[in-house]
Design a protein that fits this description.
The protein is 37% helix and 14% strand. By secondary structure, it is an alpha/beta fold. The strands form 4 sheets. Strands 1-9-8-5-4-2-3 form a 7-stranded mixed sheet, with helices on both faces. Strands 7-6-12 form a 3-stranded antiparallel sheet, with no helix packed on it. The protein has a two-stranded antiparallel ribbon with strand order 10-11. Strand 4, helix 5 and strand 5 form a beta-alpha-beta unit. It binds pyridoxal-5'-phosphate. The site of pyridoxal-5'-phosphate (PLP) has 15 residues, from helix 3 and helix 4.
């Protein structure tokens, strides 16, 4: 019999969690303050405190968080922003939509930007470094912050995949001038639709971000800076407060699944892992493996759904490739070897062992 194991399962299985979410929605429907209601303030306070930052601004998505963060620093035409080639395209799009140019710097074996290559990419036009904590593993932030200080650059963390991850004991999102989170339904700290947040310590930036998220208006009427409508929904904020309560437990489950995979698979593929500096929350459990496409087809034939997150490097998307012709040897090699295995918290140990068994069988037969 075929075991069908989906890559992700977004249904809410836990009856207590479901009841808490419905109660949160019910409270919002009862008070009726659907637009920037009290739960938005509560969520902003909770996120700031969780990330050990002074301020948080709730916005409509991680993509808008990045866009507004860059705009709040007045990054625009003629400016360059250094980032990684390996991310979801939202990262590069945010830079481009501000009118600035993304400058891609190759990655290291951990799939994050290689900090040792950043200095060589800095020009008089460089305004910021935008590292992405890919897969949920925080970048080498000590090195990146040192480079930024030496060259007087802003740092904006794309922490969309890394809420609650840590580096040297400090939270993802606690390093840069600004840090951006996505809480879309697929992320580990999830809303039930789209949502995002920006955290910072600077009060003026915080104020500006609150203006930018609502058409650039002050006191909700007078527009000071033309901007988008990027508000977070009160209903999403209310549900996110419930998600935040259960987050530590959920991450513990995901880490247990990851450790089980790694124990099973370490002799066959390169497994993602913590190192002495990092606490990984495994937004994706991304292995690096030989014969990746054959392995993926084989697993699919057995009912196991895997994903390549993401199969196209940002500079190679159609919208970018004509203006970005540099080569990224490590990213170009690894993008053909990455494979994300199912790792949602509703998975059982048996399922992890079944998947691992197929992978071992696949390599044993070669
Ligand atoms: C999810 C994600 C985003 C965008 O977030 P949305 O909320 O989906 O707009 C940006 N960067 C990275 C690395 C992401 O994974």
């Amino acid at each position: 019999m075929l075991t069908e194991i989906p890559y992700l399962d977004l249904s809410v299985k836990d009856p207590k969690l479901k009841a808490d979410l419905l109660a949160a929605v019910e409270r919002v429907l009862t008070h009726g303050r659907l637009v920037l209601g009290p739960e938005v303030d509560d969520l902003e306070r909770s996120i700031a405190s969780f990330c050990k930052r002074k301020n948080a601004v709730g916005v409509s998505s991680g993509s808008d968080a990045l866009f507004l963060a860059l705009r709040s620093l007045e990054i625009g035409p003629e400016d360059e922003v250094i980032t990684t080639p390996m991310s979801w395209i939202a990262t590069a799009n945010a830079i481009t939509l501000c009118g600035a140019n993304p400058v891609f710097v190759d990655i290291a074996e951990d799939l994050n930007i290689n900090p040792d290559l950043i200095s060589a990419a800095i020009t008089p036009r460089t305004k910021a470094i935008l590292p992405v904590h890919y897969t949920g593993k925080v970048c080498d932030m000590s090195k990146i912050m040192d480079i930024a200080k030496a060259h007087n650059l802003f740092v904006i963390e794309d922490a969309a995949q890394a809420f609650a991850s840590k580096y040297k004991g400090a939270m993802a999102g606690s390093f840069g001038d600004l840090a951006c989170f996505s809480m879309n339904a697929m992320k580990v700290f999830n809303a039930f639709g789209d949502a995002g947040a920006i955290v910072c310590d600077d009060d003026d930036l915080n104020k500006k971000l609150h203006i930018l998220r609502y058409a650039g208006t002050v006191d909700k009427e007078d527009c000071h800076i033309p901007s988008s409508n990027s508000r977070i929904d009160t209903i999403q904020a209310a549900m996110l407060l419930v998600s935040l309560n259960g987050l530590e437990d959920k991450i513990a489950k995901r880490r247990r699944i990851a450790f089980r995979y790694s124990e099973n698979l370490k002799d066959f593929v390169t497994c993602p892992s913590d190192d002495e500096n990092s606490y990984h929350t495994y937004y994706t459990y991304t292995i690096i493996c030989k014969s990746r496409d054959e392995l993926k087809s084989f697993l699919h034939s057995k009912g196991i759904e895997c994903k390549i997150r993401h199969p196209i490097l940002m500079p190679h998307h159609r919208a970018y490739k004509s203006s970005h012709t540099a080569s990224f040897p490590v990213a170009e090699k690894l993008v053909k070897e990455i494979l994300c295995l199912p790792n949602h918290e509703n998975m059982t140990t048996d399922e992890v062992d079944i998947i691992s068994g197929y992978i071992k069988g696949f390599y044993d037969a070669r």
